[in-house]
Amino acid sequence: MKILVLNCGSSSLKYQLIEMDGEKVMAKGLVERIGIEGSRIKHTKTGMDAVTREAPFPTHTAAIKYVLDILVDPEYGVLKDLDELYATGHRIVHGGEKFTKSVLVTPDVLKGIEEVIPLAPLHNPANLQGLKAVMEVLPGKPNVVVFDTAFHQTMPPKAYIYGIPYEHYEKNRVRRYGFHGTSHGYVARRAAEILGRDIKDLKIVTCHLGNGSSITAVKDGMSVGTSFGYGTAEGVLMGTRCGDIDPSVMIYLMEQLGTPQKVSDEVHKKGGLLGVSGISSDLRDVEEAAEKGCERARLAWDILVDGVKKYIAGFAAKMGGVDVVVFTAGIGENGITFRKAVCDNMEFMGVKIDAKKNDCRGKETIISAPDSKVTVMVVPTDEEMVIARDTLKCASEAK
Same domain, yes or no, for 216 and 283? Predict the structure, then answer.
């Protein structure tokens, strides 16, 4: 059975076509600048070089039609016709408290996604555009939505209620939601599989570290705490996002800058590694500058390392110990020096890595030393495969 996986942004569309018999990626691609001059598509058929074409994509519907056309193209396609598609899976950023798992799309589901738009005004509308476009182009084909927030809906109230008047939760659902849930769930389960252990017997800290970063405590296979909160600026320092910050700073910035949008730009777009280092939002650039003696770059690096250490140790305390620490996403999978810096001086809690094993990028590896009490792993994330699996399951159950 063939599943099309879509991840729609406000002006972009990522896609993968996966053959679920063997879970093989047949084709993948990216449409950029939808609705903007200079739009283009980069398409890769497995086993062939990527092909890039410039074409006008005024809407998501136009982009999806083009994707479907190229998937049945005699040269670059992988399908004889669109009847081969079993279903389409969609990434949806926010499901609020309403959606605790992946679901088949129905009119009620569409309404529910629209109801939580105020919680993710930049993301959910774009996700919905892609979903509705597929429903228009492929009427009658099953669609399944997979939510970034769903994995974290197992957190207990003590992990998601903020210390502000409770009425804000009751009336406006202000609480910690957490994101990157598809990634955290995948790497936690995959780590247990690699170790040959039942995930319900493990206490795992998963570190999804990239331009956006979050850390999650997984106990008994469930999220019991995560560093992202109501939005995606809380937690550790990120590419341009500030991480944990005193609310008094926000009040002060509001007084100084005058508008919520300007304050939002400071903490979401101008902060993080970029704001502290003054050099780049990319940790590789920051690391290089730090090695050349740039003090602000070194400071940004140290803040991020320190923050990750704090969350690992804090979540270990929360769970009453930790058996496994998993690094994933861009920095987590490729940051050899960064992983070492995080794990240095953590022998007190049983974390000890092997320098040779740690010298790896982008592959499943146990990097802890033989005498480490905590297993430290690198597990590349595969959110598209999670979406594909959930799509197959939900669509099959509905038939």
Answer: yes
